[in-house]
Amino acid sequence: MLCPVIFFAQTKHTVSGVVKDIANGETLLGVTVLLKGTSIGSTTNEYGFYSITAPEGNYTLIISYLGFTTFERDINLNADQKLDIELKEDATELDEVIITSEESKKVDLRTPQMSVAKLSTKDIKQIPVVLGEVDLIKSIQLLPGVTNAGEGASGFNVRGGAEDQNLILLDEAIIYNASHLFGFFSVFNADAIKDVKLYKGGIPARYGGRASSVLDIRQKDGNSKEYELTGGIGAISSRLAAEGPMFKDKGSFLMAGRAAYANIFLALAGEDSRAGFYDLNLKTNYEIDEKNRLYLSGYLGNDNFDLEGIFTNSYGNLSGNLRWNHIFNNKLFSNASLIYSRYNYNLEIPIEGIDWKSDINNYNIRYDLGYYASEKLKFDFGVSGIYYNFNPGKLNPLDEKSGVNPEKLDNKFALEAGVYAGLEHKISDKLTAQYGLRFSYFNRLGKQTLNNYANNLPVVYNEELGIYERADPISSTEFGKGKSIATFNNLEPRLALSYQLNEKSSLKASYNRMAQYLHLISNTTSATPLDVWAPSGKFIKPQIADQYAVGYFRNFKENMFSIEAEAYYKTIDNRVDYINGAELIAQNTIETEILTGEARAYGLEFLLRKNKGDFTGWISYTLSKSQQRTPGGAAGGLGINDGKWYSSNWDRTHDFSFTGSYKLNEKWRFGANMVFQTGRPVTYPNGQFIYNGLSVATYSERNADRLPAYHRLDLSATLTPRKNKDRKWQGEWVFGIYNAYNRMNAASISFGQNQETGINEATRTSIFGIVPSVTYNFKF
Q1: CB contact set of 213 (below 8 Å; sequence gap of 6+)
Q2: Is the pLDDT assigned to residue 60 strictly greater than 80?
Q3: Which candidate, 32, 247, 433, 658, has a CA 20 to 30 Å from the CA of 60?
Q4: Helix (H, G, I), strand (E, B), or coil: what is residue 736?
Q5: What is this structure's pTM?
Q6: Is the confidence at residue 104, as pLDDT, over 50?
């Protein structure tokens, strides 16, 4: 090993380049690049680029990344130099490269970034899931601070936040509904995914628009070294992915598709219902020269469901992104993106003659730069703009005899813009800070005619009946195309600090403010295809979230184990709540159904990982509280639930999970999940009275009760034939059991009266009992 030679006032030089996977040429993001024996280092950005500036001298460059071998290279930093690096998974010796021990998933103690969950596709594929389909969303639900909306749902809640408060990005494109088959699967094909990061707190300034979290998913670029085919055949769905070099080895491509064939099994079972989905991931890139590269990526997915001809439903996502990477010099990197995203949802009810269509279109342009100023300062800054076109719904008759009158809800238009700047500052060898400031601007635009109400109150309190009612409009105002209806702007500061106690542990703290200008109008516990997104405007203010977090992080036993413990407190202003009896479907005056309140969430998170050895996995536990309060305000009355704090629909006091993977030998690998969650809050009837001969139920306070606790055990076994080593075709069998002890967890409990006995009774609805599965995966 060569010791670094450093002299004050000595000339400084920069080493920069791109880090890739040697097997397929994929760029690697989040790779740690460090000068050994110093605190000088960096990590690669989303496109594999790194830059390090240090005083002239001899150094040992260390490059490490999760799942890859760590290697060292001696360099003489006597001038600026470009050094591209390729990492390899297997331990071997390359020219001028010394392979050291396997890099573990140890906690990064130096960076101030905290509250981030990162999973590799290898981790995700080892986790047992329902019906044998690898699922990204269900995998992150096994991490602390993340819960699900219910059995079978692909939606998720982060640190007591609502589902609409999560920004989901696929190659920078916004995904509004991340579920297939009403939540049984997610829209993300693991064969097409390179990197997954969930920001629960300490969110960098480059992200904006949601109040709780950011799920940033990056697709593979495609194998630039050789052609490759991967896939899998499962009980419900199958998938196939092809990738390889193109443009005379100056680029690569990826094509990945999935399709479900649940229709076959429903038909064999004599059912007239039909259910299925498909999706397609596409990506290609082209290297113009050493400093310029173009990327084009896209996604198309759709679901179809037919319930015995009673109704048919379809919904899907479409996105595309054209990106240009440009390296100005060894310190300045830029990325320009043009992004399109669309979400559509349709419903047909033949018996009523109804055809309902809705969609969201948004057009996004952004420009981001990263400047590696010195060994102590790293800047990132950029601008973005999103134009929204919301079509809440259009009703058409299926035929002339239906008697249905055509109806069109008002389209809603908006422009959201942001400018941000961030700085990572190494104050000392032990203390590092990350500062950020984002300015966001939102303009709700016409063309639309809006009602006016007395005292500007679309909801009023009826003191005689003790209920909230819809106000009658007194006039209306027409806003022409492009005219401003309402504007909002917010400063969103971010701060994160890391203090390294020693080589094995550190303390971190963060604060971030987030403004959210879009609202999911839904009074269900889990998002449905017919839920309506509405922009802030005259009657709906943007949600403002403030979150504080502190944490302790430690690696021990030579990085075999790691511990992450965090505490957080979050408040959210202007949280939409719904009056009792709210009518949200096909509602053109949604302001008459809602009141505005506030929310808060706080909790403790604990994560223990075992990173090395034949047995790896983690234990996750969260103790938390999520509440909402909605006073009557100017509308009068005490408000929802008498203006008192009540548990939100996604409040889970205790959330425990265990995830483990055991490699018995080269042939067999076993996996297990164990999950326990406090039952979600619900509102039960607490009595009844007779009125005009009819039995009328009375209800307890909102969300005063809970469903029974949720728990299950999942098991898997993976068989890899030994003959895989001797041939190009690689195959494996994955056997799984979801909910191994057949726990009938309650998705809901309904109350009614037995028609024969007249006795009141409760009925539990469960979605899954024990579900065995088998999947064959292949690669060649």
Answers
A1: 158, 159, 161, 165, 166, 167, 198, 199, 200, 203
A2: yes
A3: 433
A4: strand
A5: 0.92
A6: no
What gap in Å lies between CA 100 and CA 96, rounded to an integer? 13
Rg (Cα) of the chain, in Å, rounded? 27
Which residue has tokens 């997610």?
Answer: 186
Distance between CA 569 and CA 648 in Å, rounded? Answer: 15
Residue 130 is classified by DSSP as G
- Condensed to tens digits (0 to 9), the pLDDT of residues 271-311 reads 667 788 999 999 999 999 999 999 999 999 998 888 777 77
Q: Enumerate residues 6+ apart whose C-beta is below 8 A from 355.
A: 346, 347, 348, 395, 396, 397, 398
Backbone angles phi, psi at 4, to 5 degrees: -70, 140
Q: Around 143, how many Cα atoms within 13 Å sit in the side-chain half-sphere?
A: 24
Within 8 A by CB and 6+ apart from 108, the residues are: 32
**Can you say whether the dihedral through the CA atoms of 96, 98, 103, 106 is positive or negative?**
negative
Instruction: Tell me which H or E stretch contains 471.
Output: none
Cα torsion through 189, 190, 191, 195, rounded to 10: 120
- Band of residue 495 on the pLDDT scale cut at 50, 70, 90: very high
CA 208 – CA 382 distance, rounded (Å)? 12
Which residue has tokens 């047995």?
Answer: 615
Identity at 736, one-letter amino acid code: G
Which range is least confidently modeled, 611-625, 660-674, 720-734?
A: 720-734
Q: Does pLDDT of 103 surpass 80?
A: no
Q: Is the pLDDT of residue 749 over 70?
A: yes
For residue 108, what are its two tokens? 């990064």
Q: Could you tell me which of 177, 168, 157, 137 has the C-alpha nearest to residue 677?
A: 157
Query: By three-state DSSP, how is residue 465 classified?
Result: coil
Both structure tokens of 296: 């084009």
Q: Cα–Cα distances in Å, from 639 out to 327, 399, 449, 595, 630? A: 56, 44, 29, 8, 6
Query: DSSP assignment of 253-275, as one string?
Result: EEEEEEEE-HHHHHHHTT---EE
Which DSSP string corresponds to 606-646? Answer: EEEEE-SSSEEEEEEEEEEEEEEEB--GGG-SS-BGGG--E
The dihedral through the CA atoms of 195, 198, 202, 203 has a sign that is positive
Residue 736 tokens read as 């799984």
Strand ranges, E, within 264-411: 274-289, 292-307, 311-327, 332-349, 354-371, 377-397, 407-408
Structure tokens at 552: 């302790």
Of 190, 179, 132, 125, the closest CA to residue 154 belongs to 179
Coil, helix or strand at residue 531: coil
Written in H, E and C, the secondary structure of 75-122 is: EEECCCEECCEEECCCCCCECCEEEEEECCCCCCCCCCCCCEEEECHH
Q: Which residues contact 393 (CB under 8 A, 6 or more apart)?
A: 356, 357, 358, 408, 409, 532, 586
CA-to-CA dists, residue 755 to 352, 746, 752, 758, 761, angstroms: 28, 23, 9, 6, 10
**Token digits for 493?**
């500061």
Residues linked to residue 203 through DSSP beta bridges, in sequence order: none
Residue 375 region by backbone torsions, left for phi larger than 0, else alpha for psi between -120 and 50, else beta = alpha
Rounded to the nearest 10°, the torsion over CA 201, 207, 209, 210 is: -20
As a dihedral over the C-alpha atoms of residue 446, residue 448, residue 449, residue 450, rounded to 10 degrees, the angle is: -70
Span 180-199, average pLDDT: 86
Residues facing residue 564 across a β-bridge:
553, 607
- 571 strand-pairing partners: 546, 600
How does DSSP classify residue 137? H
Candidates 582, 576, 707; CA nearest to 629 is 576
Helices (H) and strands (E) in the chain, counts: 3, 54
